Amino acid sequence: MDRNTWRKSCLFISLQVAAGAIIYGGHQVAINETGFAVPADPGTATDNLAVIGVSDEFVDNTNGADGAAIVMIRRGEAFFLGNSSAKPVTQVLVGKPCQVEDSVTVCADDTVNRTAGTVMEVSPDGVWVFIS
Fold first, then answer.
1. Is-contact 9 76, C-beta < 8 A?
2. Distance CA 104, CA 26 (A)
3. Structural domain spans, the chain
4. What is the Cα–Cα distance from 108 to 32, expressed in whole angstroms?
5. Which residue, 48, 51, 93, 132, shows the most beta carbons closer than 10 Å to its own?
């Protein structure tokens, strides 16, 4: 028997923000080990989840508990991010993953634990990264 299964695109989602976190608009966002949104960083051996999207707004949860603030995240499209000067993403990585250097910069560094997304285009001014 057919079923009318509810669905949504998840291209624009709201996430609960971690205690003490400040997330700036236009910055990459990851999920921490307890499931809350944080600014993306290179990650660690135990915190290596991929970037979930890019923040659509500024949120300050400095004085709030886990989940006290909500941030809107965009995903499912390519975002223009800065390219690392130390370990730059190059043309050879088009179609392949790149890593997070900081919340606005990507790099080509296999020792970094957090994946930013898939490189779509490299230009002299930055990198187009598809974040699914």
1. yes
2. 8
3. 12-74, 77-131
4. 22
5. 51
Output the average pLDDT for the chain.
94
Strand intervals (E) in 1-132: 12-16, 22-23, 28-31, 37-39, 51-55, 59-60, 70-74, 77-83, 97-102, 105-107, 115-123, 126-131
- Mean pLDDT over residues 27-55, rounded? 87
Tokens (6 digits) for 58: 């500024």
Distance separating alpha carbons of residues 28 and 114, to the nearest angstrom: 11
Query: Does the pLDDT value for residue 100 go beyond 90?
Result: yes
Cβ neighbors of 31 (< 8 A, separation 6 or more) are 15, 37, 38, 49, 52
